TrEMBL record:
Coiled coil: none annotated. Residues 123-154 are annotated as: Disordered. This is triphosphoribosyl-dephospho-CoA synthase. Gene3D superfamilies: Triphosphoribosyl-dephospho-CoA protein (1.10.4200.10). The lineage of its organism: Bacteria, Bacillati, Actinomycetota, Actinomycetes, Kitasatosporales.
Length: 287
């Protein structure tokens, strides 16, 4: 890979995050409807703006992986240092995206280690990276780690160390919905609901407790069991879930970054398919 390819990988990741932010209606999560809501306009605008501030850091992560060449402890330490610097930059641009930076950073690095790999291979490399401890990380516990320890939830760290199973489930849901004739936004919403239906979301555990988490999971499954968002009963169930979560002020924030990860891997697969059908022998993300 070269520098342009590192940036192209990072840009694909940022595009996936921006695409996730643009999706609506996302139950309990920021989406474009909030741009007309006086109370939350700044939040969603800041999220869209600050998402683009991830580009330099993700590019640096791809370059670090390319130079190192293996999912080693050394690379994990370098990714951690880049991640902390990027968090600071994103904070200056409006904040947010800590979960997306964790997910996309590991996946971008994994994709740089093995350009053109299948999604399962990329998530397997990300799993190997996440298995290494970041020895220079701050020792103070985060809210997510505290909630994970209290309830035995996997959390963002556990999701990565398991090879991002919810990213893989979201990819499967995307493919299934598309084959069944869903529009692209509907397919993405079905993928989001697939994640929400089983994810042990530490943000929900913090704000709503185990009972609230189970309630959200059951309602998300209900939308899918009603035929998904492309079916009228499923669309009605989605609207009801959205109203419910906004009324309760419950935000399943762990699901959004995982959908972004799935959209990133989906975009890489689409580009690889396009190259193979046009006869280009080079796989990867060369512009």
């Amino acid at each position: 890979m070269n520098n342009r390819e590192d940036e192209a990988l990072a840009q694909a990741a940022v595009d996936a995050l921006v695409g996730q932010l643009a999706l609506a209606p996302k139950p309990g999560l920021p989406d474009p409807r909030d741009l007309t809501a006086r109370a939350t306009r700044r939040d969603h605008s800041a999220l869209r703006w600050s998402a683009r501030a991830l580009l330099p850091g993700l590019t640096a992560m791809a370059a670090a992986a390319r130079r190192t060449g293996e999912p080693s402890a050394r690379l994990r330490a370098e990714l951690g240092a880049i991640g902390r610097s990027t968090e600071h930059t994103v904070g200056l641009a409006g904040g947010g995206h800590r979960g997306a930076l964790w997910t996309l950073g590991l996946l971008v690095a994994a994709a740089a280690l093995h350009p053109g790999a299948e999604p399962a291979d990329t998530t397997a490399l990300a799993k190997q990276l996440a298995a290494h401890p970041d020895r220079r990380a701050p020792r103070r516990p985060s809210r997510g780690s505290t909630v994970s320890a209290r309830y035995g939830a996997a959390g963002a760290r556990g999701e990565a160390r398991a090879g991002f199973p919810h990213v893989r489930r979201a990819l499967t849901a995307l493919a299934t919905a598309r084959k069944q004739g869903a529009s692209e936004p509907q397919a993405r919403l079905d993928a989001l609901l697939t994640v929400m239906s089983t994810l042990q979301d530490t943000e929900l555990l913090y704000t709503a407790g185990p009972m609230g988490l189970r309630h959200v999971q059951a309602e998300a499954r209900g939308v899918l069991e009603a035929g998904g968002t492309a079916a009228d009963p499923g669309a009605r169930a989605l609207r009801a879930l959205d109203t419910d979560l906004r009324t309760r002020a419950w935000a399943p924030r762990g699901s959004g970054p995982l959908l972004s990860g799935a959209l990133f891997l989906d975009a890489l697969g689409a580009r690889g398919t396009a190259r193979s059908t046009t006869g280009d022998p080079h796989r990867g993300l060369s512009p």
